[in-house]
Amino acid sequence: MIDLVIDARRRDIGGFEVGRVLPFAKHRMVGPFVFLDHMGPASFQPGFPKSVDVRPHPHIGLSTLTYLFDGAITHKDSVGSDIEILPGEVNWMTAGSGITHSERFETLRHDGGLMDGMQAWIALPTELEEIAPSFTHHAGGEDLPFYEGGGMKARLIAGEAFGAKSKVPVYSPLFYVHWELAAGAKAVLPAEYPERAAYVSSGRVEVAGRVLETAQMAVFAPGETVVFEALEPSVVMLLGGEPIGPRFIEWNFVSTSKERIDQAKADWRAGRMKLPDLDNGEFIPLPEDPAPPAPPMS
């Protein structure tokens, strides 16, 4: 039932640490999900430096999904978006042919507090890799179906699952769900999609006789219902969907084509992806000597 357990690897991104879950050497994608980070949890005191902010940087060939448990992030991008995301909300940004964005911690800098959330990259289907860039914000309510009962709170963040459909505009069959489980609560993940995984953001759960700890993700074999039991109050993120085929990933770019990634790198170095100006031009430079690209992910 459990094919693999992945431990999140801590990464310093210039002011606080994230737990990098995907990509992983032995299992690089789950459905269309090519990247999964647990942002924090990290506590901030008021007045921390602006260097903690994520400066403007580009993407192609994917959608990014930001979802918060605690804290606040101000998102700004090259299609004109400028909005603060709060806990329980979704920022869905589709890069397509190319977008530049920044993420700033203005409220936390003023007030201090906890930052805790998830960021996922979701590869676009091959025929939609060059779609026009776009952005939508979803503040919960009817956009993100919610269920409560039996010691469980569940929110459908994106896609379709459990007979519900999120209004986040996804481009391929997928699901992304936030569970909050009370101690002793049981919950079931059906065999609806061929690729499925569960990440324990906090707490401990038992699955198929195995205990999953905080910051661990289980990847499940297809075709079997999965039963969870919370051993203590726990937060679990469910994700997966239909596989979409191999992808190259280098720096912030995802594509079916290595040549397309090389073009995006050249565009970024030449300044062709930087307008309109964001954050006074303080852009993240492309590494001059990036590591050799990995084989396409699948």
TrEMBL record:
Family recorded in the similarity comment: Belongs to the pirin family.
Record domain Pirin C-terminal: where: 176-273
Region of interest (Disordered), residue spans: 279-298
Protein name per Swiss-Prot or TrEMBL: Pirin family protein
UniProt-listed Pfam families: Pirin, Pirin_C
Domain Pirin N-terminal: 16-122
Stretches with biased composition (Pro residues): 287-298
SUPFAM superfamilies registered for this protein in UniProt: RmlC-like cupins
